[in-house]
Design a protein that fits this description.
Two copies of one chain form a homodimer.
Chain A: H1 6-14, H2 23-36, E1 45-46, H3 48-55, H4 59-71, E2 75-78, E3 82-85, H5 90-110, H6 116-134, H7 138-154, H8 159-179, H9 182-202, H10 205-229
Helix pairs in contact in A: 2-4, 3-4, 5-7, 5-8, 5-10, 6-7, 6-9, 7-8, 7-9, 9-10
The first copy, chain A, binds a DNA duplex through residues 22-24, 47-49, 57-61, 63-64, 79-82.
Protein name (chains A, B): GntR family transcriptional regulator
Keywords (chains A, B): DNA-binding, Transcription, Transcription regulation
Domain HTH gntR-type (chains A, B): 21-88
Amino acid sequence: MPAQGSWLETIAAARDDIGRHSTADRVAHLLREQITDGRLVPGQRIPEEDLGRAAKVSRNTIREAFRLLINERLLVHEFNRGVFVRRVTADGLADLYRVRRILECEGVRCAPSAPSEALARVEAAVIDGERAAAGDVWEQVGTADIRFHQALAALVGSPRVDEMTRHLLAEMRLVFHEMGSPREFHEPYLARNRRLYDLLERGDLDAAEAELRSYLDDAEAQLTKAYREQE
Amino acid sequence: MPAQGSWLETIAAARDDIGRHSTADRVAHLLREQITDGRLVPGQRIPEEDLGRAAKVSRNTIREAFRLLINERLLVHEFNRGVFVRRVTADGLADLYRVRRILECEGVRCAPSAPSEALARVEAAVIDGERAAAGDVWEQVGTADIRFHQALAALVGSPRVDEMTRHLLAEMRLVFHEMGSPREFHEPYLARNRRLYDLLERGDLDAAEAELRSYLDDAEAQLTKAYREQE
DNA sequence: AGCGTAAGGATTGTTCAACAATCCAGCAAT
DNA sequence: ATTGCTGGATTGTTGAACAATCCTTACGCT
């Protein structure tokens, strides 16, 4: 039985999510889906008027939606030229991994002091990935992988870190789409996710951090190589 | 003599900063100053119309300016209620310091591989603080202190970390204003900034990180205490 | 007094239409 | 091939309007 009053806090914490979505929020949500699904490719321009006509909302509202996604780093804005789906450069990729190393490794180090549900979410992501792989749904494998790393960073227990990581990993999706072939890329990392989780659960933090670092190094090297070749 | 073509890169790198400021950017800049100077106090509401009349810009543009500052976490937006200067809670303060610890300590660890100019900026901030203290300009001492920590995080050499830290420390300003008496708060940390820099320059990373951690622990404890008392 | 309800004004959310400023592709001229 | 110009398209910004929501005040009831 929960302590008295705990449900009040639950409500207070969730009060932001009750129907309080502006039109701009909904448009942003639609756009976000189009981007993470890869239907909008990096570099592509998104004209205000076209989108406004399609979504049946006014230009001003479209612009507000743009601002939201710009701050999530999914879109970029060039003055007097419009907004474009972000194109991640090699430098950007390096920076992305630099910050991922910082946040996710910190998450690993915080694992002992993290609540058990947080660790459970890491395991859930591992399992989801394995299940998706077994079913040959490589799209979902990618999603599970992202959730895995999100859960790692969440071990820090900081809302701020959570948000940073969410944006970080959303940007990673852009990178994935820009190089295609999700299967080849994600497959080898499935086993490593599992091993990393086992180390974590066993409490062997040093080994876990080492594994994570090597994991990130490998992934970055692989992506960077593919990037250089693409040009 | 610079290599041929290098000036082109210089221009390409700076092309963002050439007069390309929208009206919303300028309004946001004005507002940001009002906030960091403490003329707009945390919790205060900012009506669109009033601001629009004062700045002589339309409501739509005001709203765009709001979005910018909302994403810098200086303002908060409540649906159908308006925007307010952010009020940092005790929880928020704890999270603020949690992330500062992560980023600034990482900066310290990166010091050896950081370019010498980056270290020079740390020293410059220390000196600025000492000079301002000597001149009894405690407002500037606070500014120098913020620049010091910004420079620490910049040792990581990541644009992303730079931006996060900028927002982080801007939010710290809100905390300072919410409790007043800058002198008492900042004075004891002047000497510690100096010592931290000396340790850094000497290359004694472990001692530097320990000093920084203790620094942040003390500051957080002091602020949290003042916070609790305020209610 | 305490509580639910209704009315009203004030503010925000969103749309629309217009104009100025800027960019861009295409063409003309050298 | 480069430069300069021109017209069309897109963005930047404004102002007004209306709908939706909130807040305060007043009212009536127990």
